[in-house]
Amino acid sequence: xxxxxxxxxxxxxxxxxxxxxxxxxxxxxxxxxxxxxxxxxxxxxxxxxxxxxxxxxxxxxxxxxxxxxxxxxxxxxxxxxxxxxxxxxxxxxxxxxxxxxxxxxxxxxxxxxxxxxxxxxxxxxxxxxxxxxxxxxxxxxxxxxxxxxxxxxxxx
Amino acid sequence: xxxxxxxxxxxxxxxxxxxxxxxxxxxxxxxxxxxxxxxxxxxxxxxxxxxxxxxxxxxxxxxxxxxxxxxxxxxxxxxxxxxxxxxxxxxxxxxxxxxxxxxxxxxxxxxxxxxxxxxxxxxxxxxxxxxxxxxxxxxxxxxxxxxxxxxxxxxxxxxxxxxxxxxxxxxxxxxxxxxxxxxxxxxxxxxxxxxxxxxxxxxxxxxxxxxxxxxxxxxxxxxxxxxxxxxxxxxxxxxxxxxxxxxxxxxxxxxxxxxxxxxxxxxxxxxxxxxxxxxxxxxxxxxxxxxxxxxxxxxxxxxxxxxxxxxxxxxxxxxxxxxxxxxxxxxxxxxxxxxxxxxxxxxxxxxxxxxxxxxxxxxxxxxxxxxxxxxxxxxxxxxxxxxxxxxxxxxxxxxxxxxxxxxxxxxxxxxxxxxxxxxxxxxxxxxxxxxxxxxxxxxxxxxxxxxxxxxxxxxxxxxxxxxxxxxxxxxxxxxxxxxxxxxxxxxxxxxxxxxxxxxxxxxxxxxxxxxxxxxxxxxxxxxxxxxxxxxxxxxxx
Lengths: 156, 541
Known about the structure:
Number of helices of chain A: 7
Oligomer: heterodimer
Largest interface: A-B, 48 and 60 residues
Structural class of chain B: alpha/beta
Strand order of the largest sheet of chain A: 2-1-3-4
CATH architecture of the largest domain in chain A: 3-Layer(aba) Sandwich
Strand content of chain B: 5-15%
Strand content of chain A: 5-15%
CATH superfamily of the largest domain in chain B: NADH-ubiquinone oxidoreductase 51kDa subunit
CATH architecture of the largest domain in chain B: 3-Layer(aba) Sandwich
Number of domains of chain A: 2
CATH superfamily of the largest domain in chain A: Glutaredoxin
Shape of chain B: globular
CATH topology of the largest domain in chain B: Rossmann fold
Radius of gyration of chain B: 24 Å
Number of domains of chain B: 4
Radius of gyration of chain A: 17 Å
Largest sheet of chain A: 4 strands, mixed
Largest sheet of chain B: 5 strands, mixed
Number of strands of chain A: 4
CATH class of the largest domain in chain B: Alpha Beta
Distance between the termini of chain A: 26 Å
Helix content of chain B: 40-55%
């Protein structure tokens, strides 16, 4: 299958050593429509870096950037750390919940967005902040939240 | 730098990206080409210029003019009016009194050593780093100095780890140097996760070669051939910048095989994290580098003897390593003229929250908190008064106004030393609620506790339950006493600094802001706690 070939090619870019595990998992996860790691991905990673599958699963379930369950095409990570909290992260959260119609940890029915809370993103100069995939969106107000979501809705 | 009459520095970081800096750059370049200024004026894409919260910032040097909130149309106007006709555009200039951004004279009050190049050179051009004296220290080290001499110089300079604990860097290096194992590593901790800090990101993105040079010097000093930078997975731009810098340095023979044509080799690799605050703790970081979950190790043994793959390993913070080149270049005696006798040098801080000029500053060690907030941060916005400061991020201390004269260095802050390293300074005016802020801190720890040891795993859960009851009007005096009991037990019994340090915010909040806790116990309405209860679905009453 074409997809499997792609995954093998992804693995081939990484050294066959346990220290490559996190980088490899990042790349495998990004390649999936559901922004998650499948059982096959974990098995591939295990055989590629040469550690037991259980050890790969152990690591994959530890880090907050990895998910074993399918997520939306876009991951929204709203910072809930003290600085963003002080700057009004909750009103952004209210707007995200309202606009998306989902709660934290859930995916919209159209499979477009998953809403998550995260710890400090290191973009505190523009608090409150969220990331949509790799993009940092800061100075959040309800309007800015709606604008950002609209951009991603139009994109596809 | 290339010869040009004028340099236009454009700060490119996440904030600028979000504000559309690419369009501004394009407009600027188009205008320069149209006015035939390309030969005279050079546009330099650089890291953050140290001014946060004001959109795209553009500096024109040597004129020393800063523009804020620049749009593509503005860029065209700057090109025509300022660069062509020599008349700065008053409308866009950062005024020196209005509360829009840190004015140039305040910027000038800093002592920029680590950040000297940030926002000044193009971080993607190694030549510009070299032009500022970059890689000179590495060259001297590998061609003229014995490794022991390098360590001696760093030790004489009195450099202490900027990651938090303030451990003397020279002693750490010396322990690795004298280890019996021939295979050693230098690991750079760039897993900057302390809430409210992004100083390491500025160095990574604004002056990546300074970090690489510091690492290579460390590698030579301790006899390591491999250096690894562990960067937060969320810091995409940092990862890209540092990878580019490594490739450029290798191409010039400054890293890789036979550095400066000597027998010294030093290769640097980048490894991304995947979202775990605990990995900022050095043994968790090493576990993560080995492809495992980031569970801290029991110490001793320490990483200097049993580090990555069980080999002797130096683990240093980004800011610590970025101090190394200047120490070798200008000497330990010069370095000691900065800061205090026991904490020489400078420290980078992020001043955030309710201040007029939020952002990054670098000042000498021992600078009072008051100076930081009221001079460099510009004080609070007009008409607002200070309630308190959270110094050091979540694992930091809540300080009331009476402690503003505290000097910021590892020794003056005594047991709050851990609070210093991250350099986060969160200023809160009278509208903030300390109970609610403590709630945010405790929920952070509960989320980030790695779950390995019971005191921290259970302790953080209990603390969240207790603070939630306080925020929803279901607590009494015993609740507060119990919080202290729990954090003291965590202090004594937790495996790593994550669990141990929760004591600090809890105890300082309770002792510094007693009245506020009492008011919550008495059932005084609090809009902040009510909003939190709503957002988190906490049951009230």
